Amino acid sequence: MKFNKLRLSGFKSFVDPVELHIEPGLTGVVGPNGCGKSNLLEALRWVMGESSYKAMRGSGMEDVIFSGSANRPARNMAEVVATMDNSDRTASAAFNTDDMLEISRRIERDAGSAYRINGRDARARDVQLLFADASTGAHSPSLVRQGQISEIINAKPQARRKVLEEAAGISGLHQRRHEAELRLRAAENNLLRLEDVINELDAQYSALKRQARQASRYRNLSSGIRKAEALLLHLKWKETAEHAEQCVKELKEIRTRTGACTAAAASAGTRQLEAAEKLPGLREREAIEAAVLNRLNTELATLEAQARQAATRKTELTALLEQITADLEREKATQSDMSAALSRLAVEDEELKLGMESRAENRQQAADALERARKELADLETAYERFGARQAERKARREALRAGLDEITRRRERLSGQLENDRNKLKAARARHDAASFDTLVKNAGDAESLLRQAEQDSLNAEAAREQADKAQMEARRALENA
After folding, report:
1. How far apart are CA 30 and CA 37, in angstroms?
2. Residue 272's closest CA among 69, 97, 440?
3. Between 36 and which of 13, 327, 339, 459 could a Cys-Cys bridge form, CB atoms 3.0 to 4.6 Å apart?
4. pLDDT above 70 covers what percent of the chain?
5. Residues 411, 417, 419: CA angle, nearest 5 degrees
6. For the chain, which domains are there?
7. Cβ 40 vs Cβ 6: under 8 Å
8. Whole-angstrom distance, CA of residue 100 vs CA of residue 86
């Protein structure tokens, strides 16, 4: 096998993809210090399976990825691809079917590296064996780094032996020998485990033999159990068949009853349709009755308000009659006093006239007394005039009270007529309500009865208000008669 081409991308200083063609003969790479000559050698060692990051002159294997510069950003991936000519068929048997072999190694940050041979995933061991069979590899002495010549000169015989073996082309055999030894050790361990398993199986043999006898007995018992179960199933089947016949008879009877129930259901459906046809009329009647009840409730509320007004007016008239009665009593007393005073003054006047004829000397005293009597008489006349004015005013007020009582009487009669009319309407509504027999009216009967009871209560309240008005009228009449 021969190297034909080396392709690098993102490996150390080779940030851009670079292809290095290796022609037959001697190929030299010339350049100043720091241009990347050593990076080419490290790329070859890396693609051939180098696993030591120290050999790559880094602190970690990810240091082979281009870390960026002042003008170029860092990369997250590095890849090296080596193309080899296998036309002489000197590769391993697993890869010896192709004329060209392409070995690639790719590393990504935080993801590790992966190998591929001709586009197929491969292990690092497969790549190392492939190059070991070709007498080369990542640690091949043919890859001479700086200071390695002096190391070989000063190396121990064992290290020199590795160099000679690789030069002789037998380093791959040593690698395969090492792998064969590992496989032999694994086979020996498997044999030891197999002996342990055999010993354990020998220990289990007697138990398995006893279990086999038990299994044979179990088979015999199972056969008898199956026969008994078959007989039992036959008896159950016979019993089930008889039960099925009985069920068929019962099913026929049930179907007969079902037919009768279906006919009854059809008849009920017909009655339901007839009732549904009557439903709109009944609902209309119910709406009319509800409207009548609402109107009656409104009228009863009006009557209650009027009854309250009549009660208020009665209270006012009663208070006014009491005040007038007190004034009349007081004026009667005043009139009696004035009449007595006039009589007394008339007697004194006569006495004075007689005294004037008989006693001239007392004329002056009589004149003074007469003057006083005249003044007192004038005061009494003034008081009498005021009493007459108050009497006229009380008479006018008495007439106004009589007119108010007449108005109350007329209102009482009108309220009585309205109450009687409302009672008749309530009786008619109750009669119409009692005549409704459909399911919807029955459902709403509670609400209708509640409304009727409320209407009756309102009627009773109006009747009580009317009685109170009658009582107030009678009291007002008695007050007028006493006046």
Report:
1. 8
2. 440
3. 13
4. 66
5. 100
6. 2-138 (3.40.50.300)
7. yes
8. 5
